[in-house]
Amino acid sequence: MAKTHAVLTAPAPGTQIGPVRTYTDEQKQMMAELREYADTLLLPEEDPYRKWEVRWLDKPDTIPRYMRAAKWDLDNGKKRIRCTLEWRREFKPDLIPPEEVRIECETGKILLNGFDKDGRPIIYMRPGRENTERSNRQLRHLVWWLERAKDFMPPGQESLVIIVDYRSTTLRTNPSISIASKVLTILQQHYVETLGRAIVVNLPMLLNFFYKGISPFLDPVTRDKMRFNPDLLELIPKEQLDADFGGEFEFEFEPVSYWEQVVSHCGIAPDGTRIEKEPDAPDPPKMQSPPEEQAVMSVAPTDRDVEDLPS
């Protein structure tokens, strides 16, 4: 493939989104009850953030994810969603202005680009490219990317892939255990059932202590999703995998072009809100892949992907 600055914003043609989940009548009733409960927690009508809470609750994956995370214990699901609503009111992850965190993207230490074989968007993290001092903005930058990955997800997809590349990482550039624990708390408590796979590559022996340090903060579900140095081509189409990791996608990072593509694709306004399309306005052109690789994409679940959850 030719070298390109174009961001992949859709899975490879023919990708079948998975896993597809079905629910029993009892589980559907529990989800309805959880939504009714969540509605009682909403901010007052006059609060400007209320519409963003409703927007989040209205997403088709929100309630199912919280019930699955609670293992279908309704009381536990209520506790979880209440905790996240409180966190979102304080952090406002869906309203982070792009310019607030843009400086954190200048070296490409976190990149959202490409999809795995199940249609999950891929976030690449390269700690060796760290360019700023430790601060709360670094945390908001990561959350900004989690929100953008949600924007990138094709219909039916609820999870993402994170690839952490420790090539050229040093003790100075590696995040502290304190920062890592905060990241894990946010991911595990407020983006439940969102991590599909966590892949670690090129981990030097020097940083083994880091994973020993964060292991107490890893819940069993997250730990089970972690893989060290797997064959990435078994998980990601070669045309979607960055060439740095053995794929054929020759992406050249250029900070201005990259940032503008992502912000435009996700429809993020300067104040962090969303740009509303005109009723009859056509969809903006998608930068799905380099021109020579563009094709019509078909995404449809198959029987092999269906996952029947226990009641």
Descriptive overview:
By secondary structure, the protein is α/β, with parallel strands linked by helices. Helix content is 35%, strand content 11%. It has ten helices and seven strands. It has helices at residues 25-40, 50-58, 62-69, 74-91, 98-101, 136-152, 177-190, 208-214, 220-224, 255-266; strands at 20-22, 110-115, 121-125, 160-165, 195-201, 226-228, 306-308. The strands form two sheets. A five-stranded mixed β-sheet has the order 2-3-4-5-6. A two-stranded parallel ribbon has the order 1-7. Helix 1 packs across helix 4 (74-91) and helix 3 (62-69) crosses helix 4 (74-91). The radius of gyration is 19 Å and the shape is globular. It starts with 19 loop residues before the first strand and ends with a strand. Residues 283-311 have low confidence and may be disordered.
State the distance separating the first and last CA atoms: 47 Å
Instruction: Give the count of helical stretches.
Output: 10
Helix/strand order, N-terminal first: EHHHHHEEHEHEHHEHE
- Report the average pLDDT across residues: 86
Low-confidence stretches: 283-311
Structural class, please? alpha/beta
Write the layout of secondary structure elements.
Layout: E1 20-22, H1 25-40, H2 50-58, H3 62-69, H4 74-91, H5 98-101, E2 110-115, E3 121-125, H6 136-152, E4 160-165, H7 177-190, E5 195-201, H8 208-214, H9 220-224, E6 226-228, H10 255-266, E7 306-308
Helix pairs in contact: 1-4, 3-4
